[in-house]
Amino acid sequence: MYLLKAEHSFDSAHFLANYNGKCRNIHGHRWKVEIEVKSESLIRGGQLDGMVVDFTDLKRDVKEMVDFYDHALIIQENTMREETLKHLMEDGFKIIQVKFRPTAENFAAFFFHYMEEKGYDVKRASVYETPTNCAAYEKSEGK
Ligand SMILES: Nc1nc2c(c(=O)[nH]1)N=C([C@H](O)[C@H](O)COP(=O)(O)OP(=O)(O)OP(=O)(O)O)CN2
Ligand SMILES: [Zn+2]
């Protein structure tokens, strides 16, 4: 089995609603996202001979995916007062609302499925909130 890994980072703020601790406050991370793709075989012939995929393409797609979240305030839907949200948006802040609680685990699963939908055979998606806090998502055997 061959495994390829590409990573990219983005800087964003978030908060965990209904969290009893410091993470309930808006705070920022340099989120590092690692995507691993797998293949039992290599491409034969042509420019991609001997590759699973071209790193250039994989890196571009990972960067494109995470750049969307760069320098934003990421908010789980319905966890901020309408009025507050409205004012922040009116003042031109980049707000991204997500359907899930913005934890490293949820982002790992989200990025995993995003890359799968792009056509990659994804082995694992890992999201670092800090250099020492990492969550990963991969499919259970047989699924
Ligand atoms: N399983 C998870 N636990 C926590 C998550 C998460 O996504 N998954 N997220 C948070 C917070 O977002 C927080 O920013 C990270 O927690 P923490 O380790 O406390 O952050 P610090 O690096 O700032 O820790 P210090 O050791 O105080 O510097 C919480 N938990
Ligand atoms: Zn955090």
Automatic annotation (TrEMBL):
Its EC number is 4.-.-.-. It catalyses: 7,8-dihydroneopterin 3'-triphosphate + H2O = 6-carboxy-5,6,7,8-tetrahydropterin + triphosphate + acetaldehyde + 2 H(+). InterPro entries: 6-PTP_synth/QueD, 6-PTP_synth/QueD_sf. Zn(2+) binds at residues 14, 27, 29. Keywords: Lyase, Metal-binding, Queuosine biosynthesis, Zinc. It comes from the Bacteria. This is 6-carboxy-5,6,7,8-tetrahydropterin synthase.
